Amino acid sequence: MHIVLPGLAYLALFASATIAIPDIDEEFQKVTCGSSIKLTHEKSHFKLHSHQIPYGTGSGQQSITAVPGKDDTNSLWRVMAQLGHTCDRGEPVPCGSVVRLKHVNTKKFLHSHHHHSPMSGGLEVSAYEGQDDGDNWIVECTNKKEEFWMRESTIYLRHANTGTYLSSSTRHVYGNPIPGQQEVAAHRLQNQGEQNWSAQEGIYFAEKEL
């Protein structure tokens, strides 16, 4: 494991890595199965987030938001294979793969369905423990030259069932009890930067040698 803190050198331990500086060793440059990542919304720089607060409307499932802080462990998501499949720890994720993202703290999966989101009128995105095909998301790499999901590179996450894209916007911000947090919903691609995400901070497993 490489633990990297601002201003400190790498400390080599085991087989995963926490990266907080832009210089990334080659074996940690790809997003890999089993890694726990923070997804940054490119336009606002907020992090994909969840917490034990249910939606007051719609499904009533655990809500998903985007938050400005970098240090909240409620913004960690474990990369897993699509429902009914497995992937080995450290296996790189190819562009176009179907993945699930499991919220590290509450053990629920990033999910969407045909309920409407509370603010923007898109589809609701929730955290759901039921494990069904509403948990499957397709990784679409915006850099067509990249074969794998790369850290710091922009991606879209397209919901496999509905064809909509994971989105957030500075125009849709909650008040109490979660003031300042942005709504996260699923929308058709709008090409306004609201669907662009990148994997940044996190606990990364080194790329598995084949």
What structural category characterises the helix and strand content? mainly beta
- What number is the mean pLDDT? 89
CATH architecture: Trefoil
Calculate the terminal CA-CA distance, rounded to whole Å. Answer: 19 Å
Main sheet attributes: strand count, strand direction, barrel closure: 9 strands, mixed
Number of domains: 1
Count up the helices: 0
| CATH class type | Mainly Beta
Helix content: under 10%
**Total E-strand runs:** 15
- Largest beta sheet: strand ordering: 2-1-3-15-4-7-8-11-12
Structural descriptors:
210 residues; mainly beta; Trefoil (Acidic Fibroblast Growth Factor, subunit A); 9-stranded mixed β-sheet; 0% helix; globular; MIR motif-containing protein
Model description:
This protein has a single domain (37-199), classed as Trefoil (Acidic Fibroblast Growth Factor, subunit A) (Trefoil), CATH 2.80.10. Helix content is 0%, strand content 41%. It is built from no helices and 15 strands. The chain has strands spanning 2-3, 11-12, 16-18, 36-41, 47-54, 62-67, 77-81, 98-103, 109-116, 123-128, 137-141, 155-159, 165-173, 182-187, 197-205. The protein has a 9-stranded mixed β-sheet with strand order 2-1-3-15-4-7-8-11-12, with no helix packed on it. Strands 5, 6, 9, 10, 13 and 14 form a 6-stranded antiparallel β-sheet that branches. β5 (47-54) and β6 form a beta hairpin. It is globular, with a radius of gyration of 16 Å. It holds the Pfam family MIR. Keywords: Repeat, Signal. Residues 28-82, 90-142, 146-202 form the MIR domain. InterPro entries: MIR_dom_sf (IPR036300), MIR_motif (IPR016093).
